[in-house]
Amino acid sequence: MPYLIVREPGQVAVSVLLHEGLSVGRQAPSDLLLVYQQVSRQHARFEQDESGWGVRDLGSSNGLFFNGIRTERAQLREGDVLQIGPAQLTFTEHERAEIAHAQPSLAPETLELHRADRRLGLLVEVTRAIGAMGDPEELLGRMLDAVLGVLGCDRALAALREGDEDAPLRQVLRTRAGATVEGEVVLSRPILDALLVRREAVLLRGGREPGASSPPMEGASRSGMGTPLESGRRVLGFLYVDHWNQNAPFGSEDLDFLSALGRLTAAALERAEQHQRALVMAEATGQSPHTGPLAELIGQSPLLQRLKTQIVKFAQASGTNMLIHGESGTGKELVARALHAASARAERPFVAVNCAAIPETMIEGELFGYVQGAFMGAQRDKRGRFALAHRGTLFLDEIGDLSPMAQAKVLRVLQEGEVLPLGAEQPSLVDVRVIAATHKDLRKEAAEGRFREDLFFRLNVGDIAVPPLRERSEDLPLLAAAFLEPAALNLGKRLLGFSPAALAALHAYPWPGNVRELRNEVERAAIQAEGAVIELDDLSPAVSRAALSPSSLTTGMSLAARFAALDPMERSLVEEALVAARGNVAEAARLLGITRIMMVRRVDRFGLRSRDG
Ligand SMILES: Nc1ncnc2c1ncn2[C@@H]1O[C@H](COP(=O)(O)OP(=O)(O)OP(=O)(O)O)[C@@H](O)[C@H]1O
């Protein structure tokens, strides 16, 4: 029977039984849905005639690729590969595995059956992990490694739902060292339905690897089994293991064991996810400012709280590309790091690239890598940043400065989920979440032809705006204090904070360079400071002058801060009057319209010098 093996980036491969007229597209009524922007609503159709099976493009925008070549129509032979958007469809006549035995998945009491077994150790390990509430991916990885040894199988797979019932299945796969198997598990729709819809544990028989003409040993057959990962009414995914075995296919006892393991694993996963969610939510609502993935983002203003809530929301969609925009120095990179740290990719690399800092001639090599001899000076293979960020996050800062050529290549990687290093012949699959940042209005750049519109839309799936510091001046005292502490420590000084006048000046200044400029200002003032607090005079002239502007009284500061802001203004006027009166206090008082006594008090208070004293 003819099948299509459907491979989507980062997901469990699925085999689909081919039937006359089977259609592929982004939307119903297509039979096979591939929900990607570069897939047309009705993209391609499979047909059978006397010469066999064929496929036809239904007028798609991005085309149907047959063994790498764009085509309108093609006749299909064993192993032919079709590319539709980022998905690969392989045509095969090979029989797939089928369900030999299915049973409702087991209640935890079944554990009793397996006491005194080596397997008990594994169950204990998983039970312990439930208490430890570790990272879900790490938990699964450890558990699958143990499963390979204990069950003596070749491959162990955990497939996890990323969201609702129709969401794709993220895979975590472990292969036994030296096993004669492909590093990929292909399952059919009926098997997936048994596991995920009917929630049955299944024993499988038969099935060959795609492209493998015979089993690796004489007389061997594929033996596999799977069990749903159920927690209450939710199906989180499933566990699957298999091996080539001549004498000992898996039996129902093995299936009981896997079912019990599935129950425990699901409980551990649920608990770990709840724990992570609780941490992140506590962080977002400011209940726990010192721990968790958002801890580095200092601030309590409503705008910053909103930003944190958005980060939490987008972190959960860890496959979604993101665009962060905001003025320079607002904390875009910090936001990108928080998005990564709060996501399921947190244990994987976060790789940052500043597109504006790398010369145009080198950017492609940096991003995609190259092979030895690809160009003069390429003395050895170099892995690109995309490959380094595999299964993690790639942060492309200043994406608006990327050359058109590099933009086209980044787009290709996002569309197809694979990178082609310079000079290489074979692309390799990468699973990377791209978070791009820019201080430019990228929508406008795209509309005016300076940035690729298709790349903009690819990146803008999730977007976050980081507000400038002047719009959240409530955060200023917290930020200034947070920067002062390490600066003082480095200098070996004991600095307790800011004088009211200095704080008023910080409030009054508009901070065109945002938080970065504030950090620099505080570090500079810490060097200048001679007393226990930062005084107005310790600040740079541009900032201390800001305290004199009338706007310094209307920037939403507290009453005390606004009152303190009067001080530097008053001092400046007193100084000016003294200069105009050549140091004569009585004359200066007359110029200001105050009494001589009032003038003398002010000269003393501000520590100024007059001709009289
Ligand atoms: N909310 C914040 N809490 C603490 N530190 C912050 C915050 N926002 C920014 N910073 C600090 O300000 C500096 C600049 O931040 P970052 O590099 O993330 O800004 P950016 O917007 O990416 O800048 P650019 O556009 O120039 O690349 C860093 O030292 C960062 O730690």
TrEMBL record:
This is Fis family transcriptional regulator. The keyword Membrane does not apply. It comes from the Bacteria. InterPro entries: AAA+_ATPase, AAA_lid_NorR, FHA_dom, GAF, GAF-like_dom_sf, Homeodomain-like_sf, HTH_Fis, P-loop_NTPase. CDD domains: AAA (cd00009), FHA (cd00060). GO terms for molecular function: ATP binding; sequence-specific DNA binding. Gene3D superfamilies: 1.10.8.60, 2.60.200.20, 3.30.450.40, Homeodomain-like, P-loop containing nucleotide triphosphate hydrolases. Keywords: Activator, ATP-binding, DNA-binding, Nucleotide-binding, Transcription, Transcription regulation. One of its GO terms (biological process) is regulation of DNA-templated transcription. SUPFAM superfamilies: GAF domain-like (SSF55781), Homeodomain-like (SSF46689), P-loop containing nucleoside triphosphate hydrolases (SSF52540), SMAD/FHA domain (SSF49879). Transmembrane segments: none annotated. It comes from Chondromyces crocatus. PROSITE patterns: FHA_DOMAIN, SIGMA54_INTERACT_1, SIGMA54_INTERACT_3, SIGMA54_INTERACT_4. Residues 297-527 form the Sigma-54 factor interaction domain. Residues 22-71 form the FHA domain.
